[in-house]
Design a protein that fits this description.
313 residues, mainly alpha, Na+/H+ antiporter like fold
Length: 313
C-alpha cells in the first residue's frame, strides 16, 4: 500500500495537468473547491509539512548555514527579480503581472522535495531549504510583493503578513508540536501527507482555472509563455548561482529545483484573499502546472544521467 501511495504521489505533475485540463472542459467539476476549502486545504498542507519536522531538523539547519544562506538568497533574489523583469518586459494585464510577481516571492513548494528525490539530488538539503524559505517567507513574501508589485496595484503588506502567520506559521508550529507530543500517531500519518498535498494542490489549481476558463483560453498562450519563462529562468539561475559558489552537481540540482519550484498553492490563496481582481490568481494556478512539468522533466534527465554514471562505473 505504501508503495502504491508513493507511485501516485510521484505522478504529481500528471494529476495537476489532468485536473487543470479537465477544469477547462468541465469547470463545474472543480469550482466547488472554492475559497474556504482552498484556505483550509493549504493549512492542512502546511500542517503536514510541520509534522515531518523536529527540533533536530532546525538544529541541523544551523550546521550548514552557508548552503542554506546561499539557497535563500537564490530563492528570494533570483525569482522575484526574474518575475519583475518578465512582468516589465511583456505586455500583460496588471493583474497577471502582480500574480507572476506574487508566486515568485513565495517560498519553495513541498513538491520540490519529491522532485529532488526523483532527480537523486540532495533531499535533506531540499527539505531544509523548503523549511527555511517557508519560515523566511512569513516576512519576505509580503515585503517583496509590496515592493515589486505595488507599482501595479495597491498591496497591503501587513495583511499579507497576517495571512502568512495564519496560513504558514501557525500550522507548521502546530505540526512540529504534534511531531513531539504524539510521535506514534504521526508515524502512521506521515506516509499519506505528500499524497494529501498533491490532491489539495491539484484541486486548488483546477478550481482557479475552472472559475476563469474564458480568460485563460483568451490569453492562455501569452500568460503560459510568461510563466514558463519565469520558471525556466528560476531553474537555470538557481543551478548557475550554486555553481558560481563552487558547489558540486547534486547541490546545484537541489538549489535549481528549490528556486524553480514555488509554493503556488500559497500564492493562489494570497492572490484570492488580498487582491480584488480574480485574474491575479491565474498565473499562480498555471505556475503549479508549469513548474511541476518542467521539474519532472529535469528530474528524469538528471536521474538518467546518474544511472548512466553508475553503470559506467
Amino acid at each position: 500500500m505504501l508503495r502504491i501511495i508513493q507511485i501516485i504521489t510521484n505522478l504529481f505533475p500528471v494529476w495537476v495537468l489532468l485536473c487543470c485540463g479537465g477544469a477547462l472542459v468541465w469547470p463545474e467539476a472543480f469550482t466547488w473547491f472554492d475559497r474556504p476549502f482552498i484556505v483550509w486545504g493549504l493549512g492542512i498542507i502546511m500542517l503536514g509539512m510541520g509534522i515531518t519536522l523536529s527540533i533536530d531538523d532546525f538544529k541541523q539547519a544551523l550546521t550548514m548555514p552557508r548552503s542554506l544562506a546561499m539557497g535563500l538568497a537564490a530563492q528570494f533574489v533570483l525569482m522575484p527579480s526574474s518575475a519583475w523583469l518578465i512582468a516589465s518586459a511583456l505586455n500583460l494585464p496588471d493583474a497577471y503581472k502582480v500574480g507572476l510577481i506574487l508566486v515568485a516571492c513565495c517560498p519553495g513548494g513541498t513538491a520540490s522535495n519529491v522532485v529532488a528525490y526523483l532527480a537523486r539530488a540532495n533531499v535533506a538539503l531540499s527539505v531544509l531549504m523548503t523549511m527555511c524559505s517557508t519560515a523566511a517567507a512569513i516576512l519576505l513574501t509580503p515585503l517583496l510583493t509590496n515592493w515589486l508589485a505595488g507599482q501595479y496595484v495597491p498591496v497591503d503588506g501587513w495583511q499579507l503578513f497576517a495571512s502568512m502567520v495564519k496560513i504558514v506559521l501557525l500550522p507548521i508550529v502546530l505540526g512540529v508540536s504534534l511531531h513531539h507530543l504524539f510521535p506514534r500517531a504521526v508515524k502512521y500519518i506521515l506516509p499519506i501527507g505528500p499524497l494529501v498535498a498533491v490532491i489539495v494542490i491539484a484541486l486548488i489549481c483546477a478550481s482557479i482555472i475552472g472559475a476563469n476558463t474564458a480568460t485563460v483560453k483568451e490569453s492562455g498562450l501569452a500568460l503560459l509563455g510568461a510563466v514558463v519563462l519565469l520558471h525556466s529562468m528560476g531553474f537555470a539561475s538557481g543551478y548557475g548561482f550554486a555553481r558560481l559558489f563552487g558547489y558540486h552537481a547534486l547541490v546545484c540540482r537541489t538549489v535549481s529545483i528549490e528556486v524553480g519550484m514555488q509554493n503556488s498553492g500559497l500564492a493562489t490563496v494570497l492572490a484570492r484573499s488580498h487582491f480584488a481582481d480574480p485574474l491575479t490568481a491565474i498565473p499562480c494556478a498555471i505556475s503549479a502546472v508549469v513548474h511541476s512539468v518542467v521539474g519532472s522533466i529535469l528530474a528524469t534527465i538528471w536521474r538518467t544521467k546518474v544511472d548512466q554514471e553508475e553503470i559506467s562505473e
